[in-house]
Write a structure and sequence with these properties.
Glycerol uptake facilitator protein, 8 helices, single chain, about 220 residues
């Protein structure tokens, strides 16, 4: 169990380092071109996801995301106690990753984002983004388990662009990004509603995906 929790902590920390670090670097080097900064942010995040899912998938299942853990718990693929432990270390790992990124870029470690990310359009976006993430994960598990790292990496890279919210799709990432007043940040006051929409996305996936990817168990 220790190895699983450590894998989830480290993996989520690296995910936030990829998200926030590439956001800071892209913003600094893009000369004010937001599209270029977002492109750099998306590519780096997708690459990081491919790396951490490939390396840590055999250890913990490579959730790095409370929404994913909840989805597996609803399928009874993970025991409730372990699922709660996963969520705890994912949130802690995400925050640690943000703080380490601030240290790397010589920024104040403790900060809160002032970036507004709220509104019905973003809420709908997060439902769809989370549903889509679970769609590729469970579709991959059913048909091409070996392709899951690439599927998730490619999906999130694309979803940065085709969703209005830039596809948070992860409560741990959402919480952690509230603690960074940088390119990838989100006002902490807007975090709860975004997370609620992600949970709704899990619920929608739990209803629809079993009808598509029927279990043989």
């Amino acid at each position: 169990m220790t190895s699983k929790l450590l894998a989830e902590f480290i993996g989520t920390a690296f995910l936030l380092i990829g998200v926030v670090g590439s956001g800071i670097m892209g913003d600094a080097l893009s000369g004010g071109n937001v599209a270029l900064a977002l492109l750099a942010n998306a590519i780096a995040t997708g690459c990081m996801l491919y790396a951490i899912i490939t390396t840590l998938g055999p250890v913990s299942g490579a959730h790095f995301n409370p929404a994913v853990t909840l989805a597996f718990a609803l399928r009874r693929d993970i025991l409730p106690g372990l699922a709660l432990a996963y969520v705890g270390v994912q949130i802690a790992g995400g925050i640690a990753g943000v703080w380490l990124t601030h240290v790397m870029f010589d920024l104040p470690v403790l900060q809160f984002s002032a970036t507004s990310r709220t509104g019905a359009n973003l809420w709908v976006s997060e439902i769809l983004a989370t549903f889509g993430l679970l769609f590729v994960i469970f579709g991959g598990l059913k048909n091409r388990p070996d392709a899951i790292p690439a599927l998730v990496g490619l999906y999130i890279t694309g979803a940065y662009w085709f969703t209005s919210s830039t596809s948070f799709a992860n409560p741990a990432v959402t919480i952690a990004r509230g603690l960074s007043d940088t390119f990838a940040g989100i006002d902490p006051a807007h975090v709860p509603m975004i997370i609620l929409m992600q949970v709704i996305g899990v619920g929608v996936a739990a209803l629809i995906l079993p009808l598509i990817f029927t279990s043989e168990r």
